Amino acid sequence: MIARILVAEDEDIMRITVLDHLRNQGWQVDEATNGCEALDLVRYNRYDLIVSDIRMPGLDGEQLLDEVKQLAPRTEMILMTAHGNTDDAINCLKKGAADYILKPFDLDDLTFRVQRLLNILAIKARCVSLESCCGQRHPLIGSSAPMQRLLSLISQVTQTDSTVLIQGESGTGKELVAAAIHYESRREDKAYVRVNCAAIPAGLMETELFGHEKGAFTGADQLSIGKFELADQGTILLDEVGDMPLALQVKLLRVLQEQEIERVGGKAPIKIDVRVLCATTKNLAEEVKKGTFREDLYYRLQVIPIVVPTLRERFDDIGELTGFFLEKFGEERGLTFTLTKDATQAFKNYPFPGNIRELRNILERMTVLAPAPEIQIWDLPIEIRGVKEETEEETGNLAAAVAAAEKKCIRGALVKTSGNKTEAAALLGISRKNLWEKTKQYQL
Q1: pTM score > 0.85 for this model?
Q2: Which residues pair with 375 in a beta bridge?
Q3: Cα separations (Å) of 426 from 412, 429, 435, 442?
Q4: Which among 150, 149, 161, 155 has a CA at the least distance from the CA of 303?
Q5: Starting at the edge strand that comes first in sequence, how are the strands of the sheet with 192-196 ordered?
Q6: How far is it, in rounded angstroms, from Cα 192 to Cα 227?
């Protein structure tokens, strides 16, 4: 993937010179004329590196560094400074800047520094990936902006024992997020217990969670330890917590508040030390309005809310994900699977309503049914090849055909520009506002 760099400089000649030189090296480079403009770009785009002047109107380089470390902690910064500002540059290094360069400088020197930092970032990314594989056995894959924000939030969450509510569509990887939180926490060597609340009959859920004493009910011929006790000193994941019966929600609230449970038929509470993680595909705020979920429990659960992005929101990661799954299935079959360029593009154009689970299942099917290790576009399912859309264009009326063509053209531009709406609008020859309206209209 091509590195993305932001150049922030208020002096036009310097900015244009640096911009052109870095673009000539093959990197994708954006520009900002001041610190405030640079900060706006950082909010909506992912950058590997920022090259910024220290002295700028509105928001200077040091203030920009502070903001970037909050918004995008994985983004590195090189600061450009005049000879008299070296003390400021050194101060910025102490705050987390990666490097500084004195004006006037040789452009080849800047290239060397940028390349060195990009190499370090690549090594760091590889180390994080290897650590994830070793620690949780199921790595969280993706270098897109939504995934980087998610990984950064997970890193912060692991340092506490607070309750976490993980929300997201089915197939987005909520269980992987929960596993990452546990295996990167201080409880990593303790029990990690998972409970699917939607898969347990309502009448059995209480004893499943809290256990029961011998003789508590007919058939209880021996003491049973519940999931919360099994998870003592460790972590419990309550998956699909939105399906928990109201009567049991009261008891869960007491567990969270008092850190104690009571077995069915028990006479005394049992103290436990368990970190509780919850996951759900439901909108719990809406469930509260419907009266199917307790409001007090909802606020108690979402001490730290995490929303896992859909695959549609992180289409930049499709290449990494397909590569990971194809390598995995290839190892199982003793083959090396690859996707052709057209097949890869077809995957990027498909909205994946089933998210990563759907992507994984399709790739597994392809590795079984495809006639050769190189998977062609005609090996893909019809809905991904886009045959249905083409048929609608041929048989529909003129307005429908025009709308379909416009949607396809806009989607292609967004893919080509890695989601950068300003660049996509320029490519399409329309205004950014017009593009925004059309992406909303076509739900892109």
Answers
A1: no
A2: 339
A3: 13, 5, 10, 19
A4: 161
A5: 192-196, 235-239, 275-280, 164-167, 304-307
A6: 10
Report the C-alpha gap between 428 and 295 in whole angstroms.
Answer: 47
Q: Is 64 exposed, middle or buried (0-12, 13-18, 19+ CB in 10 A)?
A: buried
Cis check for the bond before 104: say yes or no (omega within 30 of 0): yes
Strands 211-212, 224-225: pairing kind: antiparallel
HEC profile of 175-212:
HHHHHHHHHCCCCCCCCEEEEEHHHCCHHHHHHHHHEE
Cβ-contact 384, 398 below 8 angstroms: no
What pLDDT digit, counting tens, does each position of 168-209 carry? 999 999 999 999 999 888 888 788 889 999 999 888 899 999
- Spatial CA neighbour of 1 closest among 51, 56, 47: 47
Query: Which of 297, 286, 184, 191 has the alpha carbon at shortest distance from 246?
Result: 297
Report pLDDT digits (tens) over 407-419: 888 887 877 777 7
How many Å apart are CA 160 and CA 143, to the nearest integer?
A: 25
Contact 46, 18 (CB under 8 A): no
Residue 30 has φ and ψ, to the nearest 5°, of -105, 165
Assess contact for 74 and 152: CB atoms under 8 A: yes
Q: Under a CB-based contact definition with an 8 Å cutoff, are residues 105 and 79 in contact?
A: no
d(CA 101, CA 139): 37
Domains contained in the chain, CATH given? 4-124 (3.40.50.2300), 145-309 (3.40.50.300), 313-441 (1.10.8.60)
Contact 147, 157 (CB under 8 A): no
The DSSP bridge pattern shows strands 275-280 and 164-167 to be parallel
Residues in the chain: 444
Q: Which residues of 98-125 are buried (b: 16+ CB within 10 A; e: fewer)?
A: bbbbeeeeeeeebeebbeebbeebeeee
